[in-house]
């Protein structure tokens, strides 16, 4: 279970560029929840994910994961609980390292790293099977540098890396936004598959309202650094894009017109 | 021409010793993507420590090991400055380098300490070029083998991942700060070891021995890459850096034979490195190359 209590974050405090990114986020995720996150630009969607991942410390509030207070943990220590896929396909993998080497790094997430081999013979076989299951034909290119792969391929590998050791929480930060529509759908389907097969708890930020409705069991909408709408179960299944747009206008008021364009 | 041929073995010997230093530079510059200038100081530290210990009656092997360890420490300090105090890498290296100048003087007690090959059992010496070449080749092979093994371990892979993509590394639970400190320390350890060899080769430890060392190290790495390309295994890339250092010293020998006063050597080094660093841009036509944004 993930619990955010009154989490606040202000960037560039005390300067002309001061920006309230999170103005008191309260959020509880139950185990097995697959929550999609929508909202306009600057609403705080990605910021929430970064706060949970520990990219920077929050100003106030607490973040608890499975009864462990992780608020003060540095990013690399939280990684033992959290799998992540980023918007930028370049960000989730090491371009100058091979596919199998990247996977081997991910296979040691949360474990102490010593002078044992960075990758074992057993793992070679295991990774081959896993990559083959992606059905991208990458299993025969295991020693290819990841930098030579396409954005979609890299995101697929990153997804695999994020879930290689089952995370308590999977964070997907607009991970299909930089891909062409066809590849985006593939990666999204793959995300669905990995989440349901491993029964993962996940937060997925998306710009696409249709995707937000079609995936997951719960949807939250953010505006001005807060969660303004939280819907799950049957109610979520029956949502339409027009409902969301209306919700959005109610909440956002005068800014709705410009943000609506971003959302649609 | 004959004079040049006579100078050739000496260039190879010097190139091999500086090639070991270049291997250290490769670790920071290429593996960690960290331009570390502390090596100008730690190269000299290695020489100072090795020579003073041997003058004090130590055997050459333990003296070189302690030189390696002091280099390790020097690099670790640069790493601390960078990762804990968030000082930019280049500046952190310059601070360590400057501080080491005083430390090197303190170690030696004066600016120069001679060690005679007639009185001490040195590993290498310019008086015995053939022996120097053989010993240096053995050391190069051993160091490359050890590094190849190390960078294949879990820790080694974590350091490589840190150099390749810090975001990815942290997301995969790697303590990137620690990896940077370890990598820079290891690099400087090797550089100091090379400094210990070089002092023996020259027959003295000198407080100015490391001046411009980073430029020679970079020159070696880059000459190796330009001539042999970059699509090789890790071990081969380390080896091409060593060959790059040898080529560098052969070029120097040729230029000296052509009559360049030796006081112009540093200028020549700087020009050589600028040319080799700029070669990709020159090939593509100057000014048309966009800055490389990928990191």
Care to describe what's here?
The complex is a heterodimer of chains A (264) and B (295). Helices cover 38% and strands 23% of the residues of chain A. Chain A contains ten helices and ten strands. In chain A, the strands form two sheets. Chain A has a six-stranded mixed beta sheet, with helices on both faces. The model of chain A has no long low-confidence stretch (mean pLDDT 93). Helices cover 73% and strands 2% of the residues of chain B. A two-stranded antiparallel ribbon of chain B has the order 1-2. The longest helix of chain B has 30 residues, at 2-31. Chain B has helices at residues 2-31, 39-55, 60-83, 89-108, 129-150, 154-164, 166-171, 176-202, 213-228, 234-257, 265-283; strands spanning 112-114, 204-206. Chain B starts with a helix and ends in a 12-residue tail after the last helix. Classes of the chains: A alpha/beta (264), B mainly alpha (295). Chains A and B meet through helix 2 and helix 3 of A and helix 6 and helix 7 of B.
Q: What layout of secondary structure does this protein have?
A:
The complex is a heterodimer of chains A (264) and B (295).
Chain A: E1 2-11, E2 19-29, E3 34-39, H1 45-53, E4 60-65, E5 68-69, H2 75-78, E6 82-85, H3 99-107, H4 121-134, H5 151-164, E7 169-173, H6 181-198, E8 202-205, H7 209-214, E9 218-223, E10 226-232, H8 233-237, H9 241-252, H10 256-263
Parallel strand pairs in A: 3-8, 3-9, 6-7, 7-8
Antiparallel strand pairs in A: 1-2, 1-4, 4-5, 9-10
Helix pairs in contact in A: 3-5, 5-6, 9-10
Chain B: H1 2-31, H2 39-55, H3 60-83, H4 89-108, E1 112-114, H5 129-150, H6 154-164, H7 166-171, H8 176-202, E2 204-206, H9 213-228, H10 234-257, H11 265-283
